[in-house]
Amino acid sequence: MTSSETETQVDEQIGSNGRDLRDTAKTIAASGGAIGILVVLMFPIYWVFTASLSQGSGLMSTEGIFADPSSYNLEAYRWVLFESAFQDALVNSLVVVFVTVSVSMSVVIPGAYALSRRDFLGREKILYGYVLFTQVGAGLSIATLIALYALFVNLGLSNNLLVLGLFYAAGAIPFNTWLLKTFMDNIPVSYEEAAIVDGAGRWDVIREVILPLSKPGIAVVLVFTFLAGWNEFIIAQTLLRPNNYTLAVELFSLAQSGRFETPWTQFSAFALLFASPVAIIYFFAQNYVESGLSFGGMEG
């Protein structure tokens, strides 16, 4: 090996080491930045959690932001579960969510399949209508709320949980049908053709091919429709009376219950219990939800 070849190898090693160091530094910086963002995002949750365990009614103690850990207790949770209106509001929320999810899914799944796999008269107009309701619905929310309140009051339906669930379902159907239809578009038609060649009927194809391959998209739609009935506050607060308050409205009422100050300890415990089902559902459906939102290609 000549001296020039040796020098070339040394230069390549130095350059490679320099690139490795830069790549390592970039990785460390990116990881540090991601951890920093995560800490910032999780800090309010941690703060609310510590507040729910503290004594008194304030978010902050006299000694700082966080209460003394030696004073932590479960009194706020005991009050929420056994002395507040949490249980009644939970039942009301579950009724609304059950109606919202069941009605939405019974329309969204067949509607998405029809729009994705069938060519029928008026299909394009229906698709445009779905996009229209998806994009401009929020802009008409105030006018819709006023008209809705007047209509329900005149019909005597202003304090009805089933009607509220139906309204949430009607609002959730356009977007979620379009979302699931987009996911079904990624399922190769050859899968259906192969099943038909093997002797499967139309309903067999839907049950054995389309629905199993659509599980990620269905999981996303299920989570979204659940959130539509679980989290909504404005319409529920407008139409419902205290005996039918959902958890979202009851949480707001708790914040307004203090004569001179908000009972933040009890509010924090109530808020965490209210948010827990959403976190649990997402935790168990995480893989389906992530793959459903990615809309990746199907493997053959």
TrEMBL record:
**What protein name is recorded for this chain?**
Maltose ABC transporter permease
Q: SUPFAM superfamilies this protein is in?
A: MetI-like (SSF161098)
Q: Which residues cross the membrane?
A: 28-49, 89-115, 127-149, 161-180, 217-240, 267-285
Q: Where is the ABC transmembrane type-1 domain?
A: 90-285
Keyword annotations for this protein?
A: Cell membrane, Membrane, Sugar transport, Transmembrane, Transmembrane helix, Transport
Q: How does it sit in the membrane?
A: Multi-pass membrane protein
Q: List GO terms (cellular component aspect).
A: plasma membrane
- Gene Ontology process terms (BP): transmembrane transport
* Similarity comment text for this entry: Belongs to the binding-protein-dependent transport system permease family. MalFG subfamily.
Source organism superkingdom: Archaea
PANTHER family noted in UniProt:
MALTOSE TRANSPORT SYSTEM PERMEASE-RELATED, MALTOSE_MALTODEXTRIN TRANSPORT SYSTEM PERMEASE PROTEIN MALG
Q: Which organism is it from?
A: Natrinema ejinorense
Which cell locations does it reside in? Cell membrane
